[in-house]
Amino acid sequence: MSDQLLHITIDVTLAEDQIHGLVGDGVAQPTPFRGWLALIGQLDEMLGSVPRPVAATGDLVPSEEEQ
After folding, report:
1. E-strand stretches of 16-62
2. Is CB count within 10 Å lower at the N or C end of the chain?
3. Number of structural domains in the chain
4. pLDDT < 50: residue spans in the chain
5. Is residue 22 part of a domain?
6. What is the top-level taxon of the source organism (predicted)?
7. Beta-sheet strand order (sheet of 31-34)
8. Residues 7-22: pLDDT tens digits?
9. Does residue 23 sit within a domain?
10. Distances (CA, A) of 26 to 1, 12, 18, 21, 54
11. Neighbours of 24 (CB within 10 A)
12. Is residue 32 helix, strand or coil?
C-alpha cells in the first residue's frame, strides 16, 4: 500500500459545550457534523474509505459559507 497525502478542511463552531461544523476533503461537498463523536466519525469515514482522487489546492470545493 502506498502513502497518500490528504487535505482535510474542518470548519468548527464552538458554542458553550457544543461543537458543530463541516468536514471536507476538497473533492466532495463538505459534510456537516454535530458533536465530537460525529467529527471523529466523519474523519474515520474519510480516512477509511477507498482511495479516491485528491484535489489539487486550486481545485478545492468551497464551503457553504464561501459560496
Report:
1. 18-24, 31-34
2. N
3. 1
4. none
5. yes
6. Bacteria
7. 9-15, 18-24, 31-34
8. 899 999 998 889 999 9
9. yes
10. 22, 16, 25, 15, 7
11. 22
12. strand
What is the per-residue pLDDT for 51? Answer: 58
Residue at grid coordinates 458554542: 15
Residues 6+ apart with CB under 8 A from 34: 18, 19, 20
Beta bridge partners of 32: 22
Determine what percent of the chain falls in helix, strand and coil, rounding each to the nearest 5. 25, 25, 50
Please give the Cα distance from 62 to 18 (Å, whole number).
24
pLDDT at 30: 92
- Return the DSSP state at 58: G
Residue 18 forms part of a structural domain: yes
